[in-house]
Amino acid sequence: MLDDGPAPRVRVALTVTNTGERAGHEVVQVYVTDPESTVFRPVQELGGFGVVELAAGASERVEVELDARAFQFWHPEVSRWVAEPGRFGIRVGASSREVRLETEVELTGEVVVPELTIDSTVEAWLAHPVAGPALRAQLEAEPRAAAMFFAPGVGEMMRAIPLRRIARFPGFPVPEAELEAAAAQADAAYRAGAR
C-alpha cells in the first residue's frame, strides 16, 4: 500500500516460511535506498522491521509499515525533514548483507525550492524552476560559458561556486549588479505560481 505526498507511508507485505525442523523466529528487516537523492545518503537505511515466530514448516504474512522518516533526510536549507520525489528501492532481508527481496516505489514526495540569494551556487540557480531556465539560456548562448558550466568534470566544479563570484568574471552574461533583483523576482514568481 502507498500513501504518497510530503509525508509518505508505505506498507511492505511478504510471507515468511520456516523451512527448518524446529520452531523459530525471524526478524524481517526492511531497508530503503534513495539512488536519486540530491544529498549524500548511505547506500541503504533501515526503514522498519517486524518479528515473526513460526512453528516448523509454518508460514505467516508479515507487514512492515514505513513511515515518512524512512524516506526523508534533513534538508539544511529549509531546516526540516523532507522526502524528495523519485524512485526509492525497498530491500527486505534478515540483515543488511542478506537481502532476499527487492522492489521499487515511486513517490511524489515534496519538491523543495530553497530561496535564491546572490550567494546561492550556480547549481542552485540552475535548479530553480523560474530562474533556472533563464540562466541556462543565457549561459548556453555564450559558447565559452556553456563549455565552462556544462562540460563534464569542470562544469560540476564551476556550478558549485556562488553565482555572485562567477558574475564578477569578465564577459559573464549576467552582471553582478542585477543578481539581487533577479533572485527576488524569481522567488516571488515561484511563490505566486506555487499557490
How do the SSEs run, as a string of H and E?
EEEEEEEEEHHHHHH
Mean pLDDT figure: 91
Low-confidence runs (pLDDT<50, min 5 residues)?
A: none
Provide the spatial order of strands within the biggest beta sheet: 4-3-8-9
Shape: elongated
Biggest sheet, open or closed, and with what strands and sense?
A: 4 strands, antiparallel
Number of helical segments? 6
- The share of residues in extended strands comes to 25-35%
Give the beta-strand count: 9
Helix content: 25-40%
Distance between the termini: 29 Å
Report a brief summary of the structure:
This protein is α+β, with helices and mostly antiparallel strands.
Question: How would you describe what is shown here?
Answer:
By secondary structure, the protein is α+β, with helices and mostly antiparallel strands. 27% of the residues lie in helices and 33% in strands. It is built from six helices and nine strands. It has helices at residues 122-127, 131-141, 143-150, 154-159, 163-167, 179-194; strands spanning 2-3, 9-17, 24-33, 45-54, 59-66, 73-75, 80-82, 86-95, 98-107. A four-stranded antiparallel β-sheet has the order 4-3-8-9, with no helix packed on it. A hairpin with a 5-residue loop joins strand 1 (2-3) and strand 2 (9-17). It is elongated and about 75 Å long. It starts with a strand and ends with a helix. 19% of the residues are buried. The model has no long low-confidence stretch (mean pLDDT 91).
